[in-house]
Design a protein that fits this description.
The complex is a heterotrimer of chains A (516), B (327) and C (327). Chain A has 516 residues and is α/β, with parallel strands linked by helices. Chain A is built from 18 helices and 21 strands. Classes of the chains: A alpha/beta (516), B mainly alpha (327), C mainly alpha (327).
Chain lengths: 516, 327, 327
């Protein structure tokens, strides 16, 4: 076990810096769960601290404590060395702590300026909000961060990247001293990410303390000065980023050595199962044509927002395509709903497990049998014994961990929920399984299990489509890769042509190999 | 900017009302005389007042089905108060009506805020309770015109610059709440709490407390309207304004207030109420049986909801760049 | 891959154990308490004919509550059911004027119910509009059509054999209505709890997106539920019209709220996803007994509504208060 909680308060470049804000020995209890146990976190002026940990490690709980949404059950918060409490989100805001979160600023119906100044707008006569001053100040702040956004526009008219800029402008508007960025690059394109990095540098130069939460190691090493690692609600290590390697960070995160080794497989590619021809949608994608064979894993790579999930959802019948044909085992079929797709042997494991994949309040066995009720029932009447049998067969194959098959799926961990979703679809005995970011947000242990299982499925003759934004996963698992960019197929690569460089080059639309 | 203004829901609805008036005026020019339009507005004032309150409640993702019962209970209470204490000046009566209405609204608000009971259940319950209480306090008897003091009745009939007091109160309420919604922290909080409750919490807004204030405002306006109603029609009884809550919701929906919260304006609520008011007043004029009114407002609600849904439909992501071709 | 040491049991809690701790058990206790209180309160209560009469207080509403329970579990609501009764009854009354006989009247009643249900279903599932507003709209529309057809008149003159549905007895004190309700309750219980369709209803109510992504035909299921609610309203219209022997457009006014109260009191979550037919049936009895008991004590109907409203709020509030109390 690696315990390197060095209490080196001063960075090498900064002398004698004391943290702007620090959590010391903080504990947070929820009914039946200890979300945080005696953790400490210190944020220094002009420095970026990366908070690293698997899902469920306690990162979001810390954010909620820092922003006054949760109250700690033990330990202390200090601001400039003096103890302070944040009984409400307002108190945290007044102390200069602000969080930029995918959900922080999202009032679609309010104007950009109102979003920036919600809760602390400039006041004019009679204590009323001074709209003109608010617009001016908003415009100033937006100009300051180089954002070409009209403050009078409604937020709903903005793209996702600009919404992020509005969130940052909000942080600047309250004269924040501590800026928390929770996975700020998750939905951004490469260009937008670069702009965000530049902005982070600006904030650093202004002396703000930044807490940066990310799952992407490359960006942690690129912009963070310090790191803090949580595991299962405990602090397992912190220090300067320059004094640690990626492998060490991963080891701290998961508590063991994890080599990103993918299962070795000898692809046994059989007959053609699925042929997609000329799939098109008015705004989301166009000209998607490919074939898929038994025993094959076909990767779909692209930047976030390249239209991969949108295409998959059209293939599965969620959205209506404007053109194109689907052929299964030589028969052309018309898929108009997910029910049609399932009936024809195409199933889809969505990226958003909580909302799309599972029915959280229903028990495991009912989730598994939901699309297979036609087989477990008798002329429309439920047969519970058959349901339990089917659910048991498939959940055991996936090595599910649960107290009972009657447990609501919502009570399971992300990895186990994913197993329920996959079990649900395997129970329908599909021909084609589409996995959309199958390992996103699940712990590294479960990741390996999902990869091994995918390999096993392909070996049994199932045709697999895997949408993934993780290059190692795409390279490690796929027999063939289709790269999408801006809604179209940018390249189709065989195993021999697949390298990280070719993937990135096609995904970003760079014509020649990048210079570096 | 001008284009956005012209294309707004409010402008479209105002256009629809003007068109309606124009059509009616071709056959019945008397309907559009200033005198008659003033009457229509005065008649619609209670609906406007209640629609403003309901709009604020719906903004915060709630609904208040108890407004009409609140109006009737407050109306009965002040009417009986007037009978018991004829000397009580009207300003005090109005203050009492607003306060009582606000307290009844607070009951809804507390149940929604502190116990997180779904608003539709809460207000369904308080609606029947308030109606029952009217019976309890009045013993089922009517308070009739001759029992009600002249001062009590005169207030709403007095005119100022040609318009009755009731119209002025509606106009003042529209102005006041337009400012509250656009220029105060609470007003923005109503929008934020309904538009994205999760984000509102992060922005330091207590969503439950905001909903509580919305119910309080809705209740206060219902209380005020309770006095105005009884003063105007000079009668109070158990079923006063029975079913009026649906007209109020209808006015909001027609005024472009999204039932899922976060979208709505004072102007929209007023125009929605006026739309219904014009139809109600025009029916007898154009010689259609007043029995058509219910069906027409039902049809108007359905059409308005369909139009709202069309306007607010989530557009798909725009990923394709048409000019560019695949590599 | 089967690892016997990690065997996952089917269930940790037996179904019997779960039932004992359920809402339904609590309701049964309440029903028994009301029954005992009533028999002490009035000497007339424990009389077979009186008890039989008491069932007429709730059977028609309860029939609709059965279908409403399914709708609410699926995450939708139909506030137009009482108006469907009015329209179906009006249609039957109009048909009588043309000499249509009893079988024809039944077909018309059921047909109008189905058409209204289909209209609601179309607006919600095909047009994608929120059911709470749509059915407020159709609530005005359907009853509005009755008003257009009838005005302040009434239809009478139903054929003598038509009276059986609302006034006939099958055996001794057991009325036809009561038997019909019992049969419909069993059918609904089987449909909701024992069939694939019922499972889909729960899945949709808990997570409509998840259900869609699991290959459930969400729109079709919801459409059928609206049809069912319309059909039950049609059946209730036949019973009620037969019992009253006349049709006015105000028939069954305000019933939708009592029906929703019945469903929520029966333990169905107003937010969708959970509830049982047994709970709704017991809740119907509780409401019927309370109404009947208070009636025997000469408590006016409007005061009973206070009790019903308070019941609605407190059954939801008390468990929550209890939870807060215990931390």
């Amino acid at each position: 076990m690696l315990m390197q909680s060095e209490t080196d308060l001063s960075g090498p470049s900064k002398g004698n810096a004391i943290p702007v804000i620090a959590l010391e020995g903080v504990t947070k209890l929820f009914p039946g769960v200890k979300a945080l146990s005696d953790v400490s976190l210190r944020l220094y002026p002009g420095q970026v601290t990366a908070l690293v940990g698997e899902n469920g490690a306690g990162k979001s709980t810390v954010v909620k404590i820092l922003t006054g949404i949760y109250q700690p059950d033990g330990g202390s918060i200090t601001l400039d060395g003096t103890a302070i409490a944040f009984p409400t989100p307002q108190a945290a805001g007044a102390a200069g702590v602000t969080a930029i979160h995918q959900e922080t600023v999202l009032f679609d119906e309010l104007s950009v300026a109102e979003n920036i100044f919600l809760g602390h707008a400039p006041r004019g006569r009679f204590g009323l909000i001074d709209t003109a001053a608010m617009m001016d100040q908003a415009a100033d702040i937006l100009r300051g961060i180089g954002a070409a956004i009209d403050p009078t526009h409604k937020l709903k008219d903005l793209g996702i990247a600009n919404k992020h800029l509005v969130a940052i402008a909000r942080a600047l508007s309250i004269d924040a001293r501590v800026v928390i960025m929770d996975e700020p690059t998750a939905a951004l394109s490469q260009n937008e990410i670069e702009e965000l990095y530049a902005l982070v540098e600006t904030l650093k130069a202004q002396g703000k303390a930044i807490l940066f939460i990310s799952h992407k190691f490359d960006e942690i090493f690129r912009i963070a000065d310090r790191y803090t690692v949580f595991r299962d609600g405990e602090l397992v290590g912190d220090g300067m980023i320059s004094a640690v390697t990626e492998a060490e960070l991963v080891k701290m995160m998961v508590g063991r050595d994890v080599s990103q080794i993918f299962p070795t497989r000898t692809p046994n590619i059989g007959d053609e199962v699925l042929a997609v021809k000329g799939y098109a949608h008015p705004t989301e994608f166009a000209d998607i044509t490919f074939t898929l064979h038994r025993g094959e894993i076909l990767g779909f790579y692209g930047l976030v927002g390249a239209g991969r999930s949108e295409f998959m959802q059209a293939l599965f019948g969620i959205t209506r395509r404007s053109g194109g044909t689907t052929t299964i085992d030589g028969t052309t079929i018309d898929i108009r709903s997910p029910a049609d797709a399932v009936a024809n042997g195409i199933v889809y494991v969505p990226e958003d497990r909580g909302r799309q994949g599972t029915i959280g309040a229903l028990p495991i066995f009912q989730n598994v049998t939901l699309p297979s009720l036609g087989r477990t029932s008798h002329s429309g009447f439920l047969r519970l014994a058959e349901e339990f049998k089917l659910a048991r067969d498939y959940t055991e194959r996936l090595d599910l961990r649960a107290a009972s098959l009657d447990t609501p799926v919502g009570n399971l961990s992300g990895g186990n929920q994913q197993k329920v979703v996959i079990a649900k679809w395997l129970a329908t005995q599909p021909k084609v399984i589409i996995l959309d970011e199958p390992t996103k947000g699940i712990d590294i242990g479960s990741k390996a299990a999902v990869h091994a299982f995918m390999a096993e499925l392909a070996a049994q003759g199932l045709a697999v489509i895997m949408v993934s934004s993780e290059i190692p996963e795409v390279l490690g698992m796929s027999d063939r890769v289709i790269v999408m960019r801006e809604g179209r197929m940018a390249a189709e690569l065989d195993a021999d042509d697949m390298t990280p460089e070719t993937l990135v080059r096609h995904a970003a639309g760079i014509k020649e190999a990048p210079p570096c | 900017m001008l284009k956005r203004l012209l294309m707004s829901r409010e402008a479209l609805l105002a256009g629809a009302i003007l068109l309606l008036l124009a059509v009616i005026s071709t056959r019945f020019p008397a309907f559009v005389t200033p005198q008659n339009l003033g009457n229509v507005f005065n008649d619609t004032s209670p609906l406007i007042l209640l629609a403003i309150g309901q709009m604020i409640v719906i903004l915060t993702k709630c609904i208040d089905l108890s407004v009409a019962a609140n109006l009737a209970l407050t109306g009965m209470f002040v009417a009986m108060l007037n009978v018991a204490m004829p000397g009580l000046p009207v300003p005090i009566i109005i203050t009492i009506a607003i306060s009582l209405g606000a307290v009844l609204g607070m009951v809804n608000g507390i149940l929604v805020w502190k116990l997180a009971i779904p608003p539709i259940v809460v207000t369904l319950g308080t609606m029947t309770i308030f109606r029952g209480l009217i019976f309890v306090i009045s013993d089922g008897k009517w308070v009739n015109s001759h029992e009600i003091g002249d001062g009590f009745k005169a207030f709403t009939r007095a005119t100022f610059l040609g318009l009755p007091t009731m119209s002025w109160i509606a106009i003042l309420a529209v102005l006041l709440f337009s400012i509250v919604m656009a220029r105060t922290t609470l007003g923005r909080a109503f929008h934020a709490a309904g538009g994205n409750p999760h984000a509102a919490t992060y922005a330091g807004i207590d969503v439950g407390r905001t909903q509580f204030w919305a119910f309080t405002i809705s209740g206060a306006l219902a209380g005020l309207t309770g006095y105005l109603w009884v003063s105007r029609y000079a009668v109070a009884y158990v079923d006063l304004a029975g079913g009026f809550e649906l007209d109020v919701v209808a006015a909001c929906v027609i005024g472009g207030v999204a039932i899922m919260g976060g979208i709505g304006t004072v102007m929209g609520a007023m125009l929605g109420a006026l739309f219904l008011g014009v139809i109600k007043n025009a029916l007898p004029v154009v010689d259609i049986s007043p029995f058509w009114q219910l069906a027409i407002s039902g049809g108007a609600i359905i059409i308005a909801v369909a139009l709202n849904a069309q306007a607010n439909r989530e557009k798909g992501r725009i990923i394709l760049k048409r000019a560019e071709h695949a590599t | 891959m089967t690892d016997r040491t990690r065997f996952i049991p089917d269930r940790l809690q037996s179904p019997l154990e779960r039932h004992l701790k359920s809402w339904e058990s609590l309701l049964i206790l309440v029903a028994v308490a009301v029954f005992i209180a009533n028999s002490f309160a009035s000497p007339y209560f424990l009389n077979a004919w009186n008890l039989s009469d008491a069932t007429f207080n709730f059977t028609e509403k309860a029939m609709i509550a059965l279908a409403m329970a399914l709708l609410i579990i699926s995450g939708e609501i139909d506030l137009s059911v009482a108006s469907i009764i009015a329209l179906a009854s009006t249609a039957m009354g109009a048909a009588v004027q043309f000499g249509v006989d009893t079988p024809g009247l039944v077909l018309i009643g059921l047909g109008v119910g189905l058409i209204c249900g289909a209209f609601n279903g179309f607006l919600v599932t095909v047009m994608g509009l929120p059911s709470i507003v749509v059915t407020i709209g159709t609530m005005s529309l359907f009853r509005g059509i009755s008003y257009i057809m009838l005005g302040d008149q009434a239809y009478r003159g139903y054929p003598p054999d038509f009276a059986f549905f609302g006034q006939g007895y099958v055996f001794w004190v057991i009325s036809f209505e009561f038997v019909l309700f019992a049969i419909l309750a069993v059918i609904h219980a089987i449909l909701l709890h024992k069939t694939n369709f019922g499972r889909a209803v729960y899945a949709i109510g808990n997570n409509p997106t998840g259900a869609l992504f699991s290959g459930i035909r969400v729109a079709r299921v919801k459409f059928i539920l609206f049809l069912l609610a319309g059909l039950m309203a049609g059946i209730a219209a036949i019973c009620l019209t037969s019992r009253l022997g006349s049709t006015r457009p105000s028939i069954a006014f305000g019933w939708e709220l009592e029906i929703v109260t019945m469903v929520v009191l029966g333990g169905v979550s107003i937010l969708g996803g959970s509830g049982s037919i047994l709970g709704v049936v017991i809740a119907a009895f509780v409401m019927g007994l309370v109404t009947f008991g208070l009636g025997l004590l000469n408590v006016p109907g409007i005061v009973m509504s206070i009790v019903i409203g308070a019941l609605l709020i407190s059954v939801i509030a008390l468990p929550r208060l209890w939870q807060t109390w215990r931390g």
